[in-house]
Amino acid sequence: MLDTAIRNATIITAGDRYIAQIGIRNGRIITIAEDVGPAHEEIDATGLWVMPGGIDAHVHLEQPQGPNVVMADGFESGTRSAAAGGTTTVMPFALQQKGQSLREVVDAYHAAAKDKCHVDCSFHIIITDPTPQVLGQELPALVKAGYTSFKVFMTYDDMVLNDAQLLDVFDVARREKAMVMVHAEGYDAIRYMTRRLEEAGHTAPYFHAESRPESVEREATHRAISHAELTDVPIMIVHVSGREPMEQIQWAKRRGRKLYAETCPQYIALTANNLKGLNMDFEGAKYVCSPPPRDTDSQKAIWEGLRDGTFDIFSSDHCPFRFDDPKGKSVEGARTSFRWVPNGIPGIETRLPILFSEGIVKGRITPERFVALTATNPAKLFGMYPQKGTIAIGADADLTLWDPQRQVTISQSLMHHDCDYTPYEGMQVTGWPVRTILRGQTIMANGAITGTTDIGTYIDRGLSAAFTA
Ligand code: URP
Ligand code: ZN
Ligand code: ZN
Ligand code: ZN
To answer: Which residue intervals define the domain Amidohydrolase-related in the entry (predicted)?
Structure first.
């Protein structure tokens, strides 16, 4: 007998759409058929769409921010918010601070996550201190142990790598077959622009956007692509904000480079105008993230890229700071210059509904493409496929049931995160996740969290499809 049967489901995967029943036992899908037979638990999915649970391959939870700033979400509230938004696997970043060994970093992050996860979880590593010991021993050992991806930064005082360091990291990635995610913004150009804006008295949050225009992202994107060519390694450009960096990615893809790209909800649902707040006031700090949202032409470009394969994955870049909090957006100095406003916005819960509504319901992308961008491709590119990211026999029973007609006005009162605002307040969406199932267990039903924090497990990963395909 099955543990659970889902009846009358309109099943949508990256490649198919059909009506069938799904049979679940011991947390896995064991049958998909016209009639899967009796089960202990019955779920009637009439009128609902059943999609693979979302995989959010880019979130920041409980990431150290120096002495004065604290991230709004740790593992518990962050994964609770993920579950409420239809996401069943999250990939936060274990940050190496200068001087730390990577093993120490990863062990501490596991300790922070232990028994605190409503959904499954797997870590990327942020490399900020690529010493010979880190590159020669620690990183290779961790890739072999299943940490098959890491992130590097081309900007930020505490994290920036210079070109020589980037090349060295890329070289290790090729040898060890790891996926490198690149934050592509030019450090020196941002510092120059920041100084100039401050000298002119332009210090409001809006000027964060002016301090890092698209050309700064375009230049760094091109530089990262060139370094990846030199070292012959696939890389992923993350949080791409608009047309100009996209053109660099398209150029490289046309030349046959194995290059991957990610974009995020803020680049389809926000613009730099949001950073103006109400008449250039501090309200704009709610939208300060990097790269910043651009303009409506960029949004149009992003949609083209989501359709035509320029983008491979769609992640939240959830990076929450409380607005009304001296350890968040309102940190000391933030009102004197945008330079001190912590970068990042919440979005782990709203990622899928925004793409569903703005993408599928408005006819910009198909439901199959939605699944590819939000579940199947991240699973493949980060070494979790086919355990995760699809609806197939043998796969984990990670499923999200959608009411494609449900109309919701996004508001902070609906959110399950520990941030004190949502940047999408008041946005009307059609289509909402009404049940989230993690390895066969319902962890969210009609907005209520029904799972516990010991349900989520750590996922050891294999190689990225970038190295196996
Ligand atoms: O502003 C952002 N995106 N903060 C998060 C850190 C990052 O660069 O992804
Ligand atoms: Zn039984
Ligand atoms: Zn980044
Ligand atoms: Zn990020």
So the answer is: 49-442
Whole-number Å distance between alpha carbons of 126 and 149: 9
pLDDT tens digits, 415-463: 999 999 999 999 999 999 999 999 999 999 999 999 999 999 999 999 9
Do 46 and 21 touch, CB atoms closer than 8 A?
A: no
The response to whether residue 48 sits with its C-beta less than 6 Å from ligand 1 reads no
Alpha carbon distance 241, 311 (integer Å)? 11
Q: Please identify which residue in the block is written with the tokens 């299943």.
A: 146
> How far apart are the CA of 371 and the centre of ligand 4, in A?
21
Q: Is 379 helix (H, G, I), strand (E, B) or coil?
A: helix
Closest ligand 1 atom to 319 CA: 5
pLDDT tens digit sequence for 272-318: 999 999 999 999 999 999 999 999 999 999 999 999 999 999 999 99
Quote the longest CA-to-CA distance of the chain. 72
Q: Tell me the C-alpha distance between 49 and 360, whole Å.
A: 12
Question: Nearest ligand to the C-alpha of residue 184?
Answer: 3
Question: Contact at 8 Å (CB) between 320 and 288?
Answer: no
- C-alpha neighbours within 13 Å on the C-beta side of residue 301: 20
Residue showing tokens 């319901």: 361
Residues within 5 Å of ion ligand 3, judged at the Cβ atom: 183
Q: What is the 3-state secondary structure (H, E, C) of 173-235?
A: HHHHCCEEEEECCCHHHHHHHHHHHHHCCCCCCHHHHHHCCHHHHHHHHHHHHHHHHHHCCCE
Q: For the stretch 58-67, what's the b/e string if a residue is b when 16 or more beta carbons lie within 10 angstroms of its beta carbon?
A: bbbbbbebee
For atom 5 of ligand 1, which residue has the closest CA?
Answer: 344
Instruction: Report CA(153)–ligand 3 centroid distance (Å).
Output: 7
Side-chain half-sphere CA neighbours of 177 within 13 A: 15
Rounded to 5 degrees, φ, ψ at 147 are -95, 80
State ipTM.
Answer: 0.92
CA distances in angstroms from 455 to 79, 83, 337, listed in the order given: 11, 11, 42
- Ligand 3 centroid from CA 59, angstroms: 10
C-alpha span between 170 and 182 (Å, rounded): 10
CA distance 421 to 279: 19
- CATH of span 53-369: 3.20.20.140
CA distance 464 to 177: 8
Burial of 324 (0-12, 13-18, 19+ CB in 10 A): exposed
**Quick check: pTM over 0.95?**
yes
